[in-house]
Design goal:
Chain C: Keywords: Signal. The structure holds 3 protein chains of 3 kinds. Chain A is mainly alpha-helical. Chain A has helices at about 1-30, 30-45, 50-60, 65-80, 90-125, 130-145, 150-165, 175-205, 210-215, 220-260, 265-275, 275-305, 305-310. In chain A, helix 1 runs antiparallel to helix 4 (about 65-80), helix 6 packs across helix 8 (about 175-205) and helix 7 (about 150-165) crosses helix 8 (about 175-205). The radius of gyration of chain A is 24 Å and the shape is elongated. Chain B has one domain (about 5-30, about 55-260): MetI-like fold (Orthogonal Bundle). In chain B, about 75% of the residues lie in helices and about 0% in strands. Chain C is an alpha+beta fold. Chain C has helices spanning about 10-25, 50-55, 110-120, 150-155, 220-230, 240-250, 280-285, 290-295, 330-335, 365-380, 395-400, 420-425, 445-455, 460-475; strands spanning about 35-40, 65, 75, 80-85, 90-95, 130-135, 140-145, 185-190, 195-200, 210-215, 235, 255-270, 340, 350, 355, 355-360, 385-390, 405-415, 480-490, 495, 515. In chain C, strand 13 (about 340) and strand 14 (about 350) form a beta hairpin. Chain C is globular, with a radius of gyration of 26 Å. The model of chain C is unreliable at about 1-30 (pLDDT under 50). Classes of the chains: A mainly alpha, B mainly alpha, C alpha+beta. Chains A and C meet through helix 2, helix 3, helix 5, helix 8 and helix 10 of A and helix 1, helix 2, helix 5 and helix 11 of C.
Chain lengths: ~325, ~260, ~525
């Protein structure tokens, strides 16, 4: 257990170093240009000028030697000083906190909704394996999986926002705004996990012990709840843990599509606006979430699967 | 023939879909060779006709030519990404399993560093370095993809290297390449093939994703993700135009997923 | 196969799910004394140097000088101004009884402090112009300039020159709040997503009728169009042609389209061996299908530009110039005369060198790249090969400064300094030109004539002098005008008395009224 966590901690440090170095290289690749680009971001197209760029360059000390800047850069990173946004001038850390809360709301709701779709649907299809319902669900799942998540989002926008006008198209400002992004993310997650639930349900209800419990005289409902359910839930929950990793990539696209002001939107926006400190900050948070989820998956495997404990201890 | 014979119905369906798309992309280039960037402003949103069988976009550009161009870009990217990452990943995996020691450690360290970041984040950061560059997107996607081959191949190869069959061949003095072909590659083949098909789908999706958030290839390149975001505002005037790149993207990904065979 | 357990009834799931959806499927109710405005502008900070334009439009901040729809100046926070004989010293008389949002009163000392901070930041003119600011009394401010400058009052209308309460500035004069004098004050600011304001009851002028205003940044034009269509927003700005088409069929929304003082231009580096030749520049201009760009891309027939400044810029626009027309034949003839001969590959060559050029443009104004690709296509028909590069907008000033720029497509804003003379004095009086103006253009006689106009005191001779200047620029073509700028906005029919400020200084919220619901 200790070893798993230690490994993940090491990975987190590696991630920090690689993000820091990559973003630093980014800064260096745009030497003279950099000040101009920041000035354009800050003062707008109509006011960007050489004078504005010179002012920016002097303010940010973009003219020191590279190695010195690199060490400085890494030190700031280690001390978790992420600096200020080149565009707004506001501290990155404050913006990240704000964005993170939006992302967590989106991701949390999506997981709950995905579970609400995947478990009932998957169990239904598992019990009725190879029926018309099951095949329809397989087709739907293949359909959803075969497109980038932003296409799925677009389809939902066409249907629910443009044709039916039930929900707002994009932005935020209350529960109605969250529905389409949550639904998009949830459907893309459920497309995979519903099949996993279906498979484990099928194995469970076809197993000898389930048959036995029916013969024993339990009603189909009680037999299902008492005997099949635990055997379905465990592998499916473990799988949903793994799926969370894919969730992070989905978040980037969906937040950009729906202009949901979370980390993913911040990241793609920072790339577009060349706001390097912001880019570094958002990439770091994404990386930390990623490593954290991986660690949780490892630990839950460790706790669920006794064989691992023997090997490790 | 034997290879095709081994494919399941599902995989054959995938191959047929991809084959049709590739045929469309290549045939357009040789038979029609229309410039997909040439504008006919007076013919904006024209309905399909013989000259432009798939209609014209907001600048009167020929959608038939643009979609074929988009397919060519997607196929080229997926091909180079898959080949690069597969070759690198398999070589690195086998080498790590074979040599072990510090060599294995270094490669593992490198793989772990890449695995610590979600793939799309890494691709976005790379795209930020040189905006609008095909090469940068290619490098980033390959960098993300090779790790999967590496980890899989290393795990399988570790077993093979220790197998009595390989050990005895080695004692007989066969060269390394022969050993690889005779003992290691057969064990890897099926998995590498399905990883490659998934990898191709991943690279197509990744490029369209960065195009969709405006940090990928630049207009007027007919890249599918970029076309979708450009045509989105005209949804009310010409919904069919928007559906064209969306369905193509869908078909490519579906084709590769079917071709991969087993579930991921 | 066991029978289906009742708990997993598919129908039940469907019913529960649709009920959940329909519960939340309602657009937020409209408040009777609040309006929502949306535009693409991202307010990034309180600093007027970077986000002043949006706070000026939201009527939070004001300047000494205000601008009429025709570009003439009118009193703002100053009631009047005059200069000495050679325009090197300007005296402004401040309005009395003006209160800031924090309750403090505006006086000369406060104005001096506010402007001194503003001059220390990037401003859209040469900041070294102002040598000294003195305050002879509590209601008078005197600017001593380093040179004669006739259009000085128009500089004082720029949003970077907003007058702020001293409480806006913290340590090192950093912005800690934005306390202005406008009819609305900020209640909440979440950069870059939204600004909330409330009516300021101690406003010196006529207060508005609407109590609360919220600005929401809406990145995509089609999103904004849908916002006004569905009632999430009452006014949306900067719509693109596609969104305008969509809204035209909607009865509850009115679309307003107005020309604004902004011209889409092709900037040319006249030091380049290809472009140094005037006949080549003329050929390039003749090869443009401006009507196609105006009607086909921008869908606004009639905005084709045949000169630098658009209609509505007073004496600086010549009404009697013929409309621009494409003539590929003439363009080809001019190029041939200049020695550029067509080769088999469809490109022209002179002495073995191809007629190939680079054009940079930027992404923030989405129509530019579209126009650039249209120009690329149109010029190729005359045998000119153009490579279009999408860059950040800063590539234009940086390419100008290091001399690497060859051609650029840009949307030049003339509203920053509402007096075209100010623009001409800054950009058309030296070979160096302007970062957003001409580049390496040599016309010493015109340069000195413009400087002369800048010193003269007689208003009567201005129209003739202006015609002369515009004609010379048009003949020599240091910049190729393409189209004027049409701004589209859409307004919900819930609002009355909407008007659009062509100088984009104000959303004119204080003039608006909410129609009482029947």
């Amino acid at each position: 257990m200790k070893r798993i966590l230690l490994n993940r901690l090491l990975q987190a440090i590696l991630m920090m170093w690689s993000v820091g170095t990559l973003t630093f290289i980014l800064v260096r690749l745009l030497p003279g240009d950099m000040a101009y680009k920041i000035a354009a971001g800050r003062y707008g197209d109509d006011a960007v000028s050489t004078a504005a760029a010179n002012a920016v360059s002097a303010e940010l000390g973009l003219d020191k030697p590279a190695f010195q800047q690199y060490l400085h850069w890494l030190w700031d990173l280690l001390s978790l000083d992420l600096g200020n946004s080149l565009v707004s001038g506001a501290p990155i850390i404050v913006e990240l906190q704000n964005q993170l809360s939006f992302t967590l709301v989106l991701a949390g709701c999506a997981i709950v909704v995905a579970a609400l779709i995947a478990f009932p649907l998957g169990m239904f299809c598992g019990v009725k394996a190879d029926s018309g319902w099951d095949r329809a669900s397989l087709t739907m799942s293949t359909f959803v999986r075969s497109q980038p998540v932003f296409c799925l989002g677009l389809l939902l926008i066409f249907l629910f926002a443009m044709e039916l006008n039930w929900f707002p198209v994009a932005g935020y400002g209350g529960a109605p705004y969250a529905i389409l992004p949550v639904l998009t993310l949830a459907i893309s997650l459920a497309a995979v996990s519903s099949r996993v639930v279906r498979n484990s349900t099928r194995t469970a209800v076809n197993s000898a012990w389930f048959e036995f419990s029916r013969i024993k005289g339990l009603s189909s409902r009680r037999a299902f709840v008492r005997h099949a359910l635990p055997n379905i839930l465990l592998p499916a929950l473990a799988f949903m843990g793994i799926q969370l990793i894919g969730l992070i990539e989905g978040v980037i696209m969906i937040e950009s599509l729906f202009a949901w002001p979370g980390i993913g939107h911040g990241l793609s926006h920072a790339v577009f606006a060349r706001d390097i400190p912001m880019l570094q900050g958002t990439a770091l948070v994404m990386g930390f979430l990623f490593v954290l989820i991986n660690a949780l998956v490892d630990v839950s495997y460790y706790l669920l699967d006794p064989r691992q404990q023997e090997v490790q201890s | 023939m034997t290879f095709i014979g081994k494919l399941s119905t599902q995989q054959r369906t995938g191959a047929v879909i991809l084959g049709c798309l590739a045929l469309f992309a290549v045939a357009e280039m040789f038979l029609f060779s229309i410039d997909g960037n040439q504008q006919f402003l007076a013919q904006a949103f024209a309905s399909p006709d013989w000259q432009a069988p798939l209609g014209r976009d907001q600048f009167g550009r020929n959608m038939f030519a643009r979609l074929a161009g988009g397919l060519r870009i997607s196929f080229t990217l997926s091909l180079v990404c898959v080949v690069t990452s597969a070759v690198l990943g398999v070589l690195a995996g086998v080498a790590a399993a074979w040599r072990g020691g510090w060599f294995d450690n270094v490669l593992n360290f490198f793989a772990n560093t890449i695995l610590a970041l979600p793939g799309l984040v890494l691709i976005l950061v790379f795209a930020a370095v040189v905006p609008g560059s095909f090469v940068m997107i290619y490098l980033a996607i390959s960098l993300v993809l090779w790790v999967e081959y590496f980890r899989l191949v290393r795990a399988i190869a570790l077993n093979q290297v220790a197998s009595p069959a390989l050990q005895s061949s080695m004692l007989m003095g066969f060269g390394k390449f022969y050993l690889f072909r005779r003992h290691i590659w057969p064990a890897l083949k099926a998995d590498v093939f399905s990883l490659a098909a998934f990898g191709a789908a991943t690279s197509v999706v990744a490029m369209s994703s960065v195009g969709f958030v405006y940090v990928g290839l630049k207009p007027p390149t007919p890249e599918l993700g970029l076309m979708i975001v450009e045509l989105f505002p005209y949804y009310h005037e010409a919904p069919w135009l928007l559906l064209e790149p969306i369905s193509l993207l869908f078909l490519i990904v579906l084709g590769f997923h079917l071709l991969a065979g087993k579930a991921r | 196969m066991p029978s289906l357990p009742a708990v997993f009834s598919f129908r039940l799931i469907v019913i529960v799910f649709t009920t959940l959806l329909s519960l939340t499927a309602c657009t937020p109710p409209r408040s009777p004394d609040k309006i929502v405005i949306s535009g693409p502008f991202e307010p990034v900070s309180y600093d007027p140097a970077s986000s002043g334009y949006i706070f000026s439009r939201m009527q939070v901040i004001e300047t000494l000088v205000d601008v009429n729809d025709d570009g003439t100046l009118r009193p703002g926070l100053a009631t009047g101004w005059q200069s000495n004989d050679d325009f090197s010293e300007w005296t402004f008389h401040l309005r009395e009884g003006v209160k800031f949002h924090d309750g403090s009163t505006m006086n000369a000392e406060v104005v001096r402090k506010s402007l001194a901070v503003a001059f220390g930041k990037p401003v859209p003119f040469d900041a070294s112009l102002v040598k000294d600011i003195t305050i002879p009394d509590a209601h008078t401010v005197v600017f001593t300039l380093s040179q004669h400058y006739r259009p000085f009052p128009s500089l004082m209308s720029n949003y970077t020159m907003a007058i702020l309460s001293p409480a806006s500035f913290g340590k090192f004069n950093r912005m800690t709040a934005l306390i202005g004098t406008g009819p609305y004050k900020i209640t909440d600011f979440q950069p870059p997503h939204n600004i909330s304001t409330i009516r300021f009851d101690d406003y010196w002028g006529r207060p508005g009728t609407i109590k609360e205003v919220e600005y929401i940044t809406g990145h995509r034009s089609e999103t904004r169009a849908l916002m006004v269509k569905t009632g999430q927003a009452d006014i949306v700005y900067n719509l693109d042609p596609a969104a305008v088409e969509m809204l035209k069929s909607d009865d509850s929304v009115s679309v307003f389209s107005e020309l604004i003082p902004r011209t889409t231009l092709i900037k040319l580096n006249l030091d380049d061996p290809i472009l140094a030749d005037r006949s080549v520049r003329q050929a390039l201009s003749l090869a443009l299908d401006r009507t196609g760009i105006a009607s086909g891309i921008l869908r606004v027939p009639g905005i084709e530009a045949n000169q630098l400044f658009g209609p509505g810029m007073g004496v600086w626009h010549m009404d009697d110039l013929p409309p621009p027309s494409q003539s590929l034949k003439q363009a080809k003839a001019l190029l041939e005369q200049a020695g550029w001969q067509l080769a088999n590959d469809g490109v022209r060559y002179r002495n073995g060198k191809s007629l190939e050029m680079n054009m940079i443009t930027y992404a923030n104004r989405p129509e530019l790249i579209i126009i650039a690709t249209a120009i690329q296509d149109q010029w190729s028909q005359a045998g000119v090969k153009l490579n279009v590069h999408m860059e950040n907008s800063s590539a234009i000033p940086s390419g100008h400064t290091d001399g690497t720029l060859q051609t650029a497509l840009m949307a030049r804003n003339f509203a920053n300094i509402p007096d075209p003379l100010g623009i001409l004095l800054a950009d058309f009086t030296s070979e160096q030109g302007g970062e957003w103006g001409p580049m390496n253009w040599q016309n010493p006689s015109l340069f000195s004539r413009i400087e002369q106009i800048g010193r003269e005191t007689s208003e009567a001779s201005l129209p003739a002098q202006a015609r002369d200047v515009i004609r010379t620029i048009n003949d020599d073509l240091p910049l190729i005008p393409v189209v004027y700028y049409m701004q589209h906005s859409a307004v919900s029919d819930r609002l009355q008395h909407f008007s659009f400020d062509p100088y984009e200084r104000s959303f004119r919220i204080a003039d608006l009224q909410i129609r009482s619901e029947p």
